[in-house]
Design goal:
The chain is of the alpha/beta class. About 40% of the residues lie in helices and about 25% in strands. A five-stranded parallel sheet has the order 2-1-4-3-5. Helix 3 links the parallel strand 3 and strand 4. Helix 1 packs parallel to helix 5 and helix 3 packs across helix 5. The two termini are about 25 Å apart.
């Protein structure tokens, strides 16, 4: 079965975000093996934002598996249908594991972005990473529904 991972920095503290992510994770279980892998958020006083993202990147890199997409504002923008097509192209091509990476407050390190097979952007806007985790989980579910022809995607 296909594995889909989200590697992300920090924990979801808001109950409503956690419940939403859990709901979509449950729905995804019919399509794939889905997991969220959290790494520690660096809160080191005196470090620059780039130093913090570099430290977080060091903990992210060992967790990256399969085809990797980093979420970054400079990434490629997809419609929901195009995103579904991309996932289908990968799975039809033999991919058995896909990992999406969400950085912390200061974004992803250059090392993580360079390791990625692609960069994806949802918008030119900036979102809280816990909200974005829910948005990404929903879009992954929507992509599977589009590809399966279910009525979820209207």
């Amino acid at each position: 079965m296909l594995k889909i991972n989200i590697v992300c920095v920090g924990k979801v503290k808001e109950k409503y975000f956690a419940e939403g992510i859990a709901e979509y994770a449950k729905r995804l279980s019919r399509f794939c093996e889905f997991s969220v892998i959290e790494t520690a958020e660096e809160n080191v006083n005196g470090l620059s934002p780039s130093a913090i993202s570099e430290r977080e990147g060091k903990s992210i890199l060992p967790k990256l598996r399969g085809t990797v997409f980093a979420l970054a504002i400079e990434g490629k923008k997809y419609s929901s249908r195009a995103f579904a097509d991309e996932l289908k192209r990968l799975t039809d091509g033999g991919a058995n594991e896909i990992t999406f990476v969400i950085g912390g407050s200061y974004g992803l390190s250059g090392e993580v972005k360079n390791r990625a097979d692609g960069l994806i952007s949802f918008s030119d806007m900036t979102f809280p990473h816990t909200l974005f985790r829910l948005m990404l989980t929903e879009q992954i579910y929507r992509a599977f529904c589009i590809n399966a022809g279910t009525p979820y995607h209207k």
